[in-house]
Structure formats: C-alpha cells, structure tokens
Amino acid sequence: MKKQFLFCLILPLMAFASIDWVTVSIDKKVSIDFPVKPEQSEMSGNPVWTADANNDSRCMAMIIDFKNFGMDSAQVASEMSKPEAYEDFKNGVLGQIQGSSLISEKITTTLGYKTFEYIIDMGKKDTSSLNIMHNKNIFVGAKLYAMNFFEKNGKPQDQMRNQYFRSVKIK
Known about the structure:
The chain has helices at about 1-15, 75-80, 85-95, 160-165, and strands at about 20-25, 30-35, 40-45, 45-55, 55-65, 100-110, 115-120, 130-140, 145-150, 170. It is of the alpha+beta class. The chain has a single domain (about 20-170), classed as 3-Layer(aba) Sandwich (Protein Transport Mog1p, Chain A).
C-alpha cells in the first residue's frame, strides 16, 4: 500500500521532470524557456512564440516594440509610471477577450523591470478549453515582453507555469 502511494506521488514529478525545456532567444536582450520547441508566428505585426506542452496548457510569448508607435524608452518609462497607464493597459487586455473577467492583478518587477501581471478568466465555461490566462507584461526599454500561460478550468499547471515564468532572462 505504501509503495503504491509513493508511486502515485512520484509519477507526476517524473512526468514533469522528463520535459526537456528549450531556451529560445526571442531577441538580443531576452530569452525564455519553453516546455517544447515553440512555433514562431506573427500577430498584428508582432513576433509570437507558442508551445503546447500538453493538452491542458499553452505557453505564449510576444514582443511589442513601442518604437513602431513612435515611442522611445524614456517615453515608455514615463507613460508606464502613470497610474492611468496601468488601468488603460489592463482594460486593453480585457477588451481583447470577449466575455473575460479579471481574477487578480498586480504591479511588480521582473529582474528590476516594471511588470504588469494579470490572471484572467477568459469566459469559457467548458472544462475542455484553455480558459485561464496568466499574463505577465515586462517593460524593458522601448519593448514590451508579454508572457502568457493558458490552462484549463480546474486543471492548474502550477509547476509548469512557475517554471515558464521564472525562466525569463534579460541581458
């Protein structure tokens, strides 16, 4: 009985440990680890990396270069220090996902850089959809590095999500 109990405890850890994480340099300054090699694409002119490690989660990273909007790093820093910028940013993220609602939010730093973090219920009620989005937006110079981790309702992927978010490296 004890052996079966221990096996049941160790099996999920073994499955998680067997994932060979892949480090991807998404630009000259930033690299992120993905649970599998991500597919690179483009969304609204911005580079995007997406990786599904299993049926219950997805990692996604995107770079938005504010220089494309005529803003340099000083302007981005000034704008992001305003309380209304945080609210506008949050409402913009929520406005892109019809039926979504905010579960939690915070302003923090990642490796010394201003970061906006959200957990969003994307409004899908079925348990087969990736419905919960953990969103981390890191402002570095004139760029925004957005990291998203999607998971299904009732199937949190804490270890994988934490490893993904902790993996970001900024030069």
